[in-house]
Amino acid sequence: MTMYTLHMTRANFTCWRDDARRLLAARVPPGNVLWQSEDSAGDLFASGGTDLPPPAEAPLALRLSRHELRRLECASHYWHTHHQECRWALLYRVVWRLAMGEGEALLAGDSDGAIIEQRVKAVSHEVHHIHAFLRFHPQPVDDEHQHAPEFIAWFEPRHDVLEAAAQHFIDRMGQHRWLIMTPGGAIICDGRQWHIERPETGAFTVKDYQALAEMEDDAEDLWLAYYASTFNPARLNEKTMVRSMPSRFWQHMPERVLITGLISHARHGAQRLGQDSRLATRRGRTIASNGKSRH
Amino acid sequence: MQLTDKLIVLADAAKYDASCASSGAPKRSSKGQKGLGATNGNGICHSFTPDGRCVALLKILMTNFCLYDCQYCINRRSSNVPRARFSVDEIVRLTLDFYRRNLISGLFLSSGIIRSNDYTMEALVRVARTLRIEHQFRGYIHLKTIPDASPDLIRQAGLYADRLSVNVELPTSQSLERLAPEKSDTTIRHAMSTIRDGLEEATAEPKAPRFSPGGQSTQMIVGADETDDHTILGNVQSLYSQYHLKRVYYSAFSPIPESPSSVPLIAPPLLREHRLYQADFLIRGYGFHADELLTGPGNLSLDIDPKLAWALNHRELFPIDLDSADMYMIARVPGIGVTSAHRIDTLRRERRIRYSDLTRLGCSMKKLAPFITTQDYRPRQAGLERHALLAQLQTSTPAQMALL
Ligand code: SF4
Questions:
Q1: Full-prediction pTM beyond 0.90?
Q2: Contacts of residue B47 in chain A, CB cutoff 8 Å?
Q3: Last residue of one domain, picked from the residues A82, A104, A127
């Protein structure tokens, strides 16, 4: 049987779904398809896409529940490394197996299903990370820049989470204009509509992105004051912090400048009490039971 | 006093309250609208401090001036701490500014008691109302309720807050009487009933005014008195059933500066707090009864988690066959959580379960090994005595310390 090569550069789930549907209809088994995408080296020699074959006499078709489709789509946002199987190939093998009646192919206990599960988890986790750890910096707005973003953020996600981030922040930010930049693209929102712009086609270059991202924001004192004060040195637990907030995100979080200091301070004495040591040295006041405060 | 200074004082004063999750709110969005903020039911941790705790909300007191003298509390009137008070506008400004920067998902506001209970509660409600009405803030708001405030103010709070909570403070009414003489178990429970009734009304009556859609929760300080885990869990179980609580939070007592002699000078092990959370989870999520987890007076074991402890005490029920056992029993196997139990159940409808499936499902293999059988696996330890088994399970899990 012929080998078919599919170019998946800048492809999304919808493109893949189209291809997969036609491949199933033509009964092309997964072993006969080569998926080439930008995140895998693919097979460098198999250049030039192949036209897909016409439907077979007994075409395969597959019905999936919304939940199953959503899982597949989520797994397709996983950026695999060179050592891992190409996301599009994995997805096609799974739908092929499902079409052949192997219902377990999408279940976490199955060998393919387990990889899907692991990728769905990794992607959802990264979506969660961008929702949580992204930081917006307010921009000066004047008449001259009426359409410029009021808030900008720089984030370096591991998987394709721009779409999920856009949905989330548009709900949060009301009519504010904002811009989120990542190495692979930006979300631009004018307070009503949003769109995703890729560096190679959009108005911004990667350099612009980085320049914007390195801009200083000096109005973060209040946050730093809060962060240090809400920390309880008597409960120092560095491990849980690092596990929950991996250090790759710290770079763009203002509190990074405090973390080491707070930890070493807690280790050297402050660990007995929960109180912020900045307060321990200040004059306090007790209150009489009639409500009058005493200095 | 500068705003930054106030923030330092009033965040420090509020940090001992652990009940600051931001979950349970209904879906709200500000997409293309005036105002700000959204909620979707799930909490978000925007940062973590080096104590490993999540920063989800701006957690502050409105003021740490307080007329009461609760012995375990840093803000008690006899405590010699710097005092401060925020204005309504200051809290609103801080909340909105932090929110826009994506530093928080909302506000957790509590207060020391100034002038009178109603005066204090009214001020808290005013903050929430200003945020909601004037600024159309749709983020999360959690208000700590002053137990002695009038029911009418509590109802008003429910109009604006996503969650209300009243702290039971201590595990028993005797301890409360001894350590928080101005508070009373009766009024605390009264406030919790007012909230429960409001919640029930809002669910039963579609036209009833909005009322704290994220429900109510409470917090209990552990280790400030002598109460053992057996009593704590028993009381907690009845709290859950009487007041429709979403959660009970446990806060290991933190020694405070110039500690009065009525409370201990050292903190209880954080591991105790952790075990209580685990037991609490088993009661809420797995249908365990408090009496099953601790059959008599005493504390939960610090060495092993309560689920494993329970299974070791019920060797006669194990091993179970994963192809035929009830879902209910599968979820009771140490090392298998509710999610995995569901997945095992789905998978076994397709085919028989193999031992290696469990690794892929992310179960804790070492824990579950003695308690299950599959078509290709039978535990070697099946005949082992409880003690030998315990020793074997513990060998590579050194007793604790993991938390620190
Ligand atoms: S009422 Fe008691 S617990 Fe609350 S702030 Fe005052 S002293 Fe602390």
A1: no
A2: 132-133, 227, 245, 253, 255
A3: A127
